[in-house]
Write a structure and sequence with these properties.
about 375 residues; FAD/NAD(P)-binding domain; five-stranded antiparallel beta sheet; alpha/beta
Length: about 375
């Protein structure tokens, strides 16, 4: 009789990395993902050598081939290069880091995996026969003996079991937008300013500004921008820490007024932060959410065959964090612990990595503070 597949909630970077790593070890897995199989993460993320080199080993792929598959500018022969000197606070970024297209990366990693799309988790219930998964499509999967929650910062896996584990919102106003431009515009305006880097940052009028490349094709380019600043208290019309998830697309007019007040912007910032052009972009308000589950809670869950990883266990803020790299690292290392088939090994995995998670979270908070300091050095443009 074949072993029961391990259930992974969430098919993001952490989930697919864990699933692929277990599959490579001959351990069957099924991933349950609330989204459809349509492309959903068409943006760039920064990967560091300490993350992608172990990933290459699992994928049995050399670095050149890997970058040709996933680099944001791979279609035009690029390698996703990042120049740390163009960043306000590089943190882990070095000359060996690069920008990867997240959707292409996830697609590459999830090859061969059994993913049940449109299977969002509603709740978990633990019974004497194991754990039952109640899905939002009215399906129920009963008698699960091993479940991993990799369903992100708003993890329903975590909420179902640890209802008191909430989220903290850091006091920063952050807006993110995506725009598609013609290749001629990209080549004439963006490329000369980026000077070989796929991400560039600066300060202006008390705000942190970022422009990054998501994708480049023969005909067009996709770019993202970030506008971020410290919140100004309860009277700040741009800071809504208690907003609903569905309100992320509600952009206050005060934001556009702030952008209009930016002065002496060099390229590519002057092109990006043009108010009339921005009104045509897809804009979201980001909240810098963090969470941390206590170590005894993780031990208790593990004793019942439920594990948390990535943002489900230790959410990182979007800016200044290393969420993608940590999710991949969690997936690779948790697979080793699960493959050992020893409860004490899982406990040891938590014991080993929990201090690192705590330190990473504190470092992320400090990084965000540094990124927003007016006296921080501006990137060279």
């Amino acid at each position: 009789m074949s072993p029961q597949p391990l259930s992974i909630i969430g098919a993001g970077l952490g989930g697919v990395t864990l699933g692929r790593a277990l599959l490579e070890r001959g351990i069957p897995v099924v991933l349950y993902e609330r989204a459809t199989s349509a492309p959903r993460h068409g943006y760039g993320i920064s990967l560091h050598a300490s993350t992608y080199k172990p990933l290459l080993k699992m994928l049995n792929m050399d670095e050149q081939t890997f970058k040709q598959r996933v680099a944001v500018d791979a279609a035009v022969g690029g390698t996703g290069a990042i120049d740390p000197k163009r960043l306000i606070r590089p943190r882990e970024a070095t000359s060996t880091s690069f920008r990867a297209h997240r959707e292409r990366l996830e697609k590459l990693i999830r090859q061969g995996l059994d993913i049940k799309w449109e299977h969002g988790l509603e709740k978990l219930e633990q019974t004497h026969n194991g754990t039952s998964l109640y899905m939002q499509n009215d399906n129920t999967i009963e008698g699960q003996t091993c479940i991993v929650g990799s369903d992100g910062v708003h993890s329903l896996t975590r909420k179902s079991i640890l209802r008191e584990a909430g989220l903290d919102v850091l006091p920063f106003v952050t807006f993110n937008g995506k725009r598609k431009v013609s290749r001629s515009t990209f080549d004439s305006v963006y490329s000369p300013a980026l000077r070989g880097s796929n991400v560039i940052e600066s300060h202006n009028n008390g705000a942190f500004l970022q422009v990054s490349v998501n994708d480049i094709t023969e005909d067009q380019a996709s770019v993202s921008w970030v506008y971020s600043r410290p919140a100004k208290g309860s009277s700040d019309r741009c800071f809504k820490p208690n907003r609903l998830l569905s309100d992320a697309t509600q952009i206050p007019k005060e934001f556009y007024q702030e952008v209009a007040a930016l002065t002496d912007l060099p390229q590519p910032f002057s092109e990006i932060f043009d108010v009339e052009k921005m009104k045509q972009d897809r804009i979201l308000t980001w909240l810098m959410r963090t969470s941390k589950v206590d170590l005894p809670q993780l031990y208790q869950l593990a004793s019942n065959g439920i594990f948390l990883m990535g943002d489900s266990a230790h959410s990182q803020p979007i800016l200044g964090g290393e969420g993608a790299n940590i999710a991949i690292f969690d997936g690779l290392t948790l697979a080793e612990a699960i493959a050992a088939q020893n409860g004490e090994t899982i406990t040891a995995w938590y014991s080993k990595h929990f201090p690192t998670w705590q330190q990473s979270l504190e470092t992320s908070k400090a990084t965000i503070e540094e990124m927003h300091k007016a006296e921080a050095p501006k990137s060279k443009v």
